[in-house]
């Protein structure tokens, strides 16, 4: 039997591992991005804003990717692997756009879907799935990042109401969000609250001067005597298991998404190496360039296989948070190294927004940190390997 020719963009034949449905979702997401985002994303990154973010959110909602792995309430109810494939395609366009989708679906929507009352779910999830309402997730504070238990935001009872005071920092989607899921200390432990953005005392000033995730709006959440009705709180969940379950959902999307930035940079570098001529031949004909491309390709292949393995485990109901940490730690770290190597192949052109590589590289510096730093995921794996916690 004659074997088919190898695809230089997929030398390991990874595409054969996807189902027809997964390929169909990938194609639909890619078609939408090529039409509505790719022609403009470099300009949005340079200007530090997506000018039509609400229209874009509605288009993403109509495509079904907002909360796409959730069941009911207008959500698409797709598999974890299908969600991962979509995240990869979105981040191949830009990490900031994938952040918008992740914060909406895996943090804000998942928190309400998993921990909210039936009334909260009915009120918010259908509009969020459609992209008509945008959400954000308030956990990180100026002095409480990797250690969320040290948060200082508090909620106290005042009659039947709750009154919230505190600050949250580095909150994606915050400047244009319609609703925020906010975690705060109470007399009964850490609890989550659904806070409409038009509540008196609530504001979300934008954080400026970022050099990464520039196409993603980031802000603070300022809560000054924000008064909420009794039914604004999640009814049952107490402690850190509430927000950490949401973070685990978002980290899973990052395992896939970071590969998108890597794939985009690798493919640009591969094609550039064939077209760029120096010393009388394409630079791809030199051994050092081929070594870079081979190493980049190997790390991408291994990362993809890990993401797919975790996706299949999640679909089977057997994925542990520690395993998500393995994927986040490895795939973001290796994706960033792929982007850095791709930049060297492009030479000076690698720092130009005419090519996506420096944009992906800068974005991944943020992805490396959020949803758990390298240090935190290293210690999670270290505890698995030794049985000894080393966080303090």
TrEMBL record:
It holds the Pfam family Acyl-CoA_dh_1. The keyword Oxidoreductase applies. It comes from the Bacteria. Transmembrane segments: none annotated. Its EC number is 1.3.8.6. Keywords: FAD, Flavoprotein, Oxidoreductase, Transit peptide. Residues 136-226 form the Acyl-CoA oxidase/dehydrogenase middle domain. It catalyses: glutaryl-CoA + oxidized [electron-transfer flavoprotein] + 2 H(+) = (2E)-butenoyl-CoA + reduced [electron-transfer flavoprotein] + CO2. Belongs to the acyl-CoA dehydrogenase family. This is glutaryl-CoA dehydrogenase (ETF). It comes from Microbacterium bandirmense.
